[in-house]
Amino acid sequence: MQSPLHVAVKKGHLDFVKEILRLNPELAEVVDQLKRSTPLHIAATLTKRPLGIVRSLLSAAPNMCFVHDQDGMTPLHVAAVNGNIKVLKVFLRMKRQAALERTTRGETILHLCVKNCQLETLKELVEITYDLELLNSEDSDGNTVLHLAVAYKETEMVKFLLEKGDKIHKNAVNKKGQTIKDILEQTISCSKKPIKDKDGKIKKEVDEDNLEEAEEEKQREVEEERLRQADIMLKNLFIEKHVSRAKQVLKRSKDEKWLEEQNTALMVVASCIATLSFQVGMNPPGGVWQDNDGHEAGTSIMSYDKHGDFYSIIQVSNTIGLISSLSVILLLISGLPCKKYFVFILRVTLWIAVTASAATYFYTIGYLTNEILEKAVLVEEALEYSVEIWLWLMLIILVGHGLRFIWKVIGHNRRSHIKHVLGKDTYCPNV
């Protein structure tokens, strides 16, 4: 099933390994017929004098770092499982990209360290492989190293990982829609209330004659107490590090996406209004004079008309529309933190710009209409009805936003009342 090189590596005979590789270096690439493992896989499990053997094998066949056995693990994965940090350093020094290899379940060497309780190995690997971005890598279930550390109640690992600050995604959501806080609440250990007799004394559920069962019950209670203490430590740590539930993270992500969409829409509308307003300012209704015969060339013809009030109104409303739209553009590109109330201010500003553009249009049409009768109908009836419809539309929008705000306030107060009645968050509803 195995070559002589497999046997020499397994026995830890460095001299035999060197001599075999000198005579037949191709044996370094041979896999056994049972577990599909290479000599490097076996060397990764050694605890005594493994470095010389690993270096010799890597010198003969460096690409064997990327070979997977029947369990889907490379030699680096095997070394991580066994906590052979010195061997891992040799691997990473000679073939750094081998750290990116994953098992059949998408697990990295950091995931395997957590699963096999290799705290010191995890610490070393995090520092060594930081530039490879393994710290936030996900397995096939979307779990990061931090997800697994919380699920396995490895409090020291969780504390170490959370101390990385912004380097680690503490609010990452896996494929089940869970953050590390959701996993903690799901796997929390709720202690059972002791059963008491009529006199109020705690009953002994274990028969004192059966010492084996009594010892097992005692060990179980010790383990449950350890898990409860781990739950308390993790809960306090999450509060300190501001870890959120998946519902809050997804809501925050949804809000950010909504804000981005709103910013894009506001920018497009503001740009269109600014373009139209600038065009009206540069090319006023009726055009400009082309000569200096009793007037100045380049000035608006409309400004010399007997209905000069129309020109003043058009220019004022057009200027309001231009300044309002440009203000929205300026605020959007200023880099200020954009929140919902900020978007509301921008919306109101655009409402003013749209209203001013509508007023500019109506007064322009009123001026450009030739016949007095048609002008009267247009200005008095069309403008009147349009303004009325516009005001009703604005009122509906304001009432809608007002009702929406009231609904949110009522919902928040109701949630606050429920929390006040409960007194505190509870993770053990069955107790």
TrEMBL record:
Cellular component GO terms, alphabetically? plasma membrane
**What SUPFAM superfamilies is this protein classified in?**
Ankyrin repeat (SSF48403)
Its localization reads: Membrane
Q: Does DNA damage count among this protein's keywords?
A: no
| Gene3D superfamilies, per the entry | Ankyrin repeat-containing domain
* Domain PGG positions: 256-364
Keywords assigned: ANK repeat, Coiled coil, Membrane, Repeat, Transmembrane, Transmembrane helix
Q: Specify the protein name.
A: PGG domain-containing protein
Q: Which organism is it from?
A: Chenopodium quinoa
Gene encoding the protein: LOC110683226
